[in-house]
Every structure is written in C-alpha cells, then in structure tokens.
C-alpha cells in the first residue's frame, strides 16, 4: 500500500525546527550577553566559564538534541536500522552533554553539596539518571542480537513512553532552573522585573514549553497518510470549496 508523507506532520517538523532555533538563540544570548548574571563578581574566570556552559549544555546539548533524536523516526528516510543508529547516536550525544552539564554546575568552589539543595537540582539528577537508564535499556533491547523479538515488542511501548516522559521532565527541569535563577537575580536587584534580561529568560521558558509540545505531538502523530485517508481528505476539501 502506497504511503504519502502527511502535510500536518511536515508542518509540525517545520515548527519544531523554528522553535528549536529560537530557543538556541535565546539561551546563547542569555549565556553570552548576560554572562555576568551567572556568577558573583569576585569569582574566577574559570568558574564563569563553567557557569555559562551549564545552561548552554543542558538546553542545546541535552534538550534540543534529544528532541531531534525523538523526531528522527518521523522524518529520516531509509531502513529501520539506520533510523535506530541515528537515534541512538543523537541520544548518546545528548546524554553526554547532560552529564557534562551537571558536572560543570558542581565544579564550582562550593562543591557538590552546596549545589544540591533545590528542586531544580534534584529533578536534574533524576532526569539525567532516567535518561541514562533509558539509553542503556534501549541499546540492550533493540540492538542485542540475542534478544527475542517478542521481548522487544513488549519493551517498545515502555521505551517510547519513558522516552517522551524523560524529555518532558527535562523541559520541566529547565523551566524550574530558569524560574529559580531569575527569581534569585530579581530578589537581589541585579535584574529588573521588566528588564531586557527578564524578557529573554521568560521568552526562553515559553520557547521550551512550545518546543516540547510540538516535539511530543509530532512523535505521536501518524507518519504517513494512506490512500484511504487521502481520499477522505480530498472529498472533505471538495465539500468545503
């Protein structure tokens, strides 16, 4: 049966790319243009670099790349093994960025304990741990040649669910981090509530929320349009015209 790439899915993929680009620009603008907000003035240049790397790695490296890995199965042509290979590699890159992003946050002179006090930090560790376990289970379940096919069929729905859940959890964790950081800066008087930096951070939060919704919707949407659904769509179009 012939399959036709659906227009709604193409639109979702396009909006996902535009949203991801917007998020990347906003986080880079915040990290580079307003980098003084990430660390006290008396700290060293090395601590400043690590503090700036944290949001960049966690947003671009972890969230955006893992979102692209989820969308691979929606747009990439070729065999299933090719799609699984690209998906696995992108998720591996995202996991590496997430681990290094957390390490940069805990690299400061205050140590690990001083940074492990907020809901954001707890959620971040849980999220990266779930992501790592999900990546390992996916690798063993779908690439180990000794696995029985029935086991892979049973694991697949849970793999998809946990993948989308972990991605959503990563976005929520980033939102709590943005809220925590911006509230702290505004309480100290370093950032005005209606200032440019506040608008950038709030825009970044809205962009992440929009992106996560588009990625999840694209992931669960039908990839192809069958001839029957195309006929129904054409008939409906003729009736409305």
TrEMBL record:
EC code: 7.2.1.3
MF terms (GO), sorted A to Z: metal ion binding; transmembrane ascorbate ferrireductase activity
Membrane topology according to the record: Multi-pass membrane protein
Keyword list, A-Z: Electron transport, Heme, Iron, Membrane, Metal-binding, Transmembrane, Transmembrane helix, Transport
Matches recorded under Pfam families: Cytochrom_B561
TM region(s), chain numbering: 48-73, 85-103, 123-143, 155-179, 199-220
Cytochrome b561 domain ranges (all copies): 15-220
InterPro entries cross-referenced by the UniProt entry: CYB561/CYBRD1-like, Cyt_b561/ferric_Rdtase_TM
Reactions performed catalytically: Fe(3+)(out) + L-ascorbate(in) = monodehydro-L-ascorbate radical(in) + Fe(2+)(out) + H(+)
Entry cofactors: heme b
Protein localization: Membrane
GO cellular component, one term: membrane
Top-level taxon: Eukaryota
Top-level enzyme category: translocase
UniProt xrefs under PANTHER family: CYTOCHROME B561-RELATED, TRANSMEMBRANE ASCORBATE FERRIREDUCTASE 4-RELATED
Name this protein carries in UniProt: ascorbate ferrireductase (transmembrane)
Species whose genome carries this gene: Escallonia herrerae
